[in-house]
Amino acid sequence: MSWDALFPPAALTQHLHTWTVHLPPTDILILILLSLLALIPFLPRPSSLLRVSVRTTSLPGPRNTSLLFGLYRHINESPDSGLVYERWAEEYGPAYVVPGGFGSKRVVICDPRANAHFYARETFGYVQTKLSRVFIENLVGCFYYPHF
């Protein structure tokens, strides 16, 4: 059977015409606006359109096993998560990427000099309060942090 046999064009347009005749023009505009509002989450954000792509070094790392959980489930289910990270450091080097949940990525840096370099330059996300400095001084010893 063809489409025209099931839905004759005249009957279809008559049905659509009958449906739109019963709605006032303001209701039709409201329906159009609501349907456009429903599409907003699927549109690209203006910030992503203006964002300049930054080319960085591609780091190696383990393959993602789950799009939903990433490797977090593997890490949490292992008896010693430190050994998992150490094994990856031996396999992929002192800096590697661990896939996270929902496609996120976490960079792991195992080299102490690279960590010191990173935290010397990164001041926005690594801010220590006075309480955290006192805690680290008590935990490690006061020789670790110079007093400012």
What can you tell me about this protein's structure?
The protein has 148 residues and is mostly helical. The protein has helices spanning 3-6, 9-21, 25-39, 46-50, 72-77, 81-92, 112-121, 130-140; strands at residues 95-99, 105-109. It folds into three domains: 1-32, no CATH class; 59-110, no CATH class; 111-148, no CATH class. Strands 1-2 form a two-stranded antiparallel ribbon. The longest helix has 15 residues, at 25-39. The N and C termini lie far apart (85 Å).
Characterize the main sheet.
Answer: 2 strands, antiparallel
The computed structural class is: mainly alpha
Q: Could you give the distance between the termini?
A: 85 Å
> Please, how many domains?
3
Into which percent range does the helicity of residues fall? 40-55%
Q: Order the strands across the largest sheet as they lie in space.
A: 1-2
Strand content: 5-15%
> Gyration radius, to the nearest Å?
29 Å
Uncertain parts:
none
Number of helices: 8
Order of helices and strands: HHHHHHEEHH
The chain-level mean pLDDT equals 76
Care to give the gist of this entry?
This protein has about 150 residues and is mostly helical.
Task: Pick out its properties.
3 domains, single chain, mainly alpha, 2 strands, two-stranded antiparallel sheet, 148 residues
How is the secondary structure organized here?
Layout: H1 3-6, H2 9-21, H3 25-39, H4 46-50, H5 72-77, H6 81-92, E1 95-99, E2 105-109, H7 112-121, H8 130-140
Antiparallel strand pairs: 1-2
